[in-house]
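for the recovery benchmark. tokens below, seq after
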């Protein structure tokens, strides 16, 4: 798919504009996405049917293979990512598991970073070994660690996430993209495609839980992977059988979310910057992790590869477990719920929720303390959020 270009100047359109123009077919005059709930489409002839069943680009055969609404969402994401193709999935985990099991074989080796979404980590740690796939975990903040762990001829995938759960560590995309051999996959969920495009750094596959910022309204469970036609064709062969295909209704909401992604992430980043600065100067707060703060150890790297620092903040309260629990239970504008990237500002206390199964030393290794809070900044007025945070810290 050719990139949209500015009509009056020989330069590509800004990603915020692409997010609004992309994923529309030339013959559709409807501005809102058209919903095709149909599971199947009429086949005009036996010869056409044979072609429709095997062509990865086919949009009207059977919805597990392809669907016009889902394809429109995929086209939009591919254009934003600067990719040849994209495939949508029923969730971020649907995308990740299809990439892992679609591209690896028994005896394959994966290099993954230690700082990962808990679901991804569990998949790699508990399930890959069941299928004879070995995984080596490395520190994602060390640019040399990924390359050093590659076993030539055996390492099939390198899996990274940036910014990463839970402490917003940044992976150097240029360094990762320069490693030859394995397929380099980046989970870019915390930095949606209007602010970070991994493929422009030499990464092979960019992956999102579109349940989060891309969908943006907490009403669509959706995942998406973008990359070259060759890689996506390889992935497609497994993905149509894996069955984690995106539902047309969710893809429609994904497209709806994409139209406002640019302005939402701008607002969330601006509010997050204010909140992070307030938290950093507050006596009850021991430490703030936010890529837009000068105190973030990778501030310069984040600035180089992300147009904005995003809407997520992780911070540690001095008062430990009791303070952490009290904070999340006393917020009034913010709400206690898991997930991120939506209109509502959400707070979570990882030690008692998402990471409750970990042992104390495992918790410490992931950077989660008893007083750690994760904040996904939403779209409320920043003054209300600041007042709510200050009140809850008291
Ligand atoms: C939420 C999330 C996932 C999983 O996505 P689902 O849509 O919940 O399956 C994967 N990676 C990251 C970074 C996430 O935040």
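predicted aa per position
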């Amino acid at each position: 798919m050719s990139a949209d270009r500015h009509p009056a100047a020989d330069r590509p359109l800004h990603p915020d504009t692409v997010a609004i123009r992309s994923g529309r077919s030339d013959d559709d005059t409807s501005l809102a996405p058209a919903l095709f709930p149909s599971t199947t489409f009429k086949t005009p002839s036996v010869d056409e049917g044979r072609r429709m069943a095997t062509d990865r680009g086919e949009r009207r055969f059977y919805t597990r293979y392809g669907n016009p609404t889902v394809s429109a969402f995929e086209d939009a994401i591919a254009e934003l990512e600067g990719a040849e193709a994209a495939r949508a999935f029923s969730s971020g985990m649907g995308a990740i598991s299809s990439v892992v099991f679609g591209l690896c074989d028994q005896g394959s080796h994966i290099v993954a970073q230690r700082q990962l979404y808990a679901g991804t980590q569990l998949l790699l740690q508990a399930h890959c070994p069941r299928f004879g796939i070995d995984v080596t975990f490395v520190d994602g903040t060390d640019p040399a660690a990924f390359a050093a762990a590659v076993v030539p001829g055996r390492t099939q995938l390198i899996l990274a996430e940036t910014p990463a759960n839970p402490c917003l560590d940044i992976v150097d995309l240029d360094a990762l993209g320069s490693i030859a051999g394995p397929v380099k996959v980046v989970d870019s969920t915390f930095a949606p495609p209007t602010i970070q495009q991994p493929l422009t750094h030499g990464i092979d596959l960019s992956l999102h839980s579109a349940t989060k910022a891309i969908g943006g309204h907490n009403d669509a469970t959706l995942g998406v992977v973008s990359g070259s036609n060759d890689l996506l064709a390889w992935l497609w062969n497994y993905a149509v059988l894996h069955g984690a295909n995106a539902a047309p209704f969710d893809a429609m909401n994904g497209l709806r979310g994409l139209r406002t992604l640019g302005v939402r992430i701008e607002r969330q980043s601006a509010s997050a910057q204010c909140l992070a600065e307030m938290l950093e100067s507050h006596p009850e707060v021991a430490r703030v992790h936010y890529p837009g703060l000068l105190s973030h150890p990778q501030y310069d790297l984040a600035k180089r590869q992300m147009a904005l620092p995003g809407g997520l903040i992780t911070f540690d309260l001095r008062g430990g477990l009791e303070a952490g629990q009290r904070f999340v239970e006393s917020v009034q504008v913010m709400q206690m719920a898991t997930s991120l990237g939506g209109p509502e500002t959400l707070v979570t206390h990882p030690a008692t929720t998402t990471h409750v199964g970990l042992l104390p030393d495992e918790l410490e290794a992931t950077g989660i303390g008893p007083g750690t809070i994760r904040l996904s900044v939403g779209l409320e007025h920043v003054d209300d959020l600041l007042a709510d945070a200050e009140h809850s810290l008291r």
